[in-house]
Amino acid sequence: MRYAPLREKQITEIMRMKGIRTVSDLTTENICIAFDIDLHFEPRRSRCIFEDDFAVVILDSRLPRLQQRGKFFHELSHIIAHVGDQKRLNEPFKDLQETQAYWISLYTSMPRYLFEPAAIKYQSIQKLQQIFDLPEDMIIARFESIKRERKRQEFQYKMARSESKRRPKSLQPGQVYDSTLSILNQLKNQVGEERLSYEVKRLL
Description:
With 204 residues, the chain is mainly α. Helix content is 61%, strand content 8%. The chain has nine helices and three strands, in the order H-H-E-E-E-H-H-H-H-H-H-H. Helix 3 (65-81) packs across helix 4.
């Protein structure tokens, strides 16, 4: 989880608290039990209804099974991350919630602590699609999200290291500021070198 964004870390903690330890725990039935969701299949657009103490997910029965799985995790993401009724929101807020639910659905359906080991082991989109039982476009999107986050954080680490090398460290031997050395030498003259601590002596 070194490269994970904050939202993904939060979702990961929720999934672990709900007992999602292996890929086999990611079945629709198990997730419904873990999150106390009442699941229905109807010939209409997928949606969810939820309050603090209950949740209902309605999946479009006309969709292929893998698409239903993807929609299920999308609706789960609304339940986990959002509050209120979307019907009462204006369009920009609805669009924002839909975008958030899309990304969160990648975290919930393919938690990194399960996805990365499988990806390293198999290195095959098709195999991962079979393992996680999800549409291919979701598998690819999960790969891409992890790659982007790695690149972003590696760039930040590189910039931080560069800045650290550029700036002299005031309390490292051989890299002490002249003003700091002057003060330390004054201290040595006043109290005597034998009374200085080892940490001070090593800087002079």
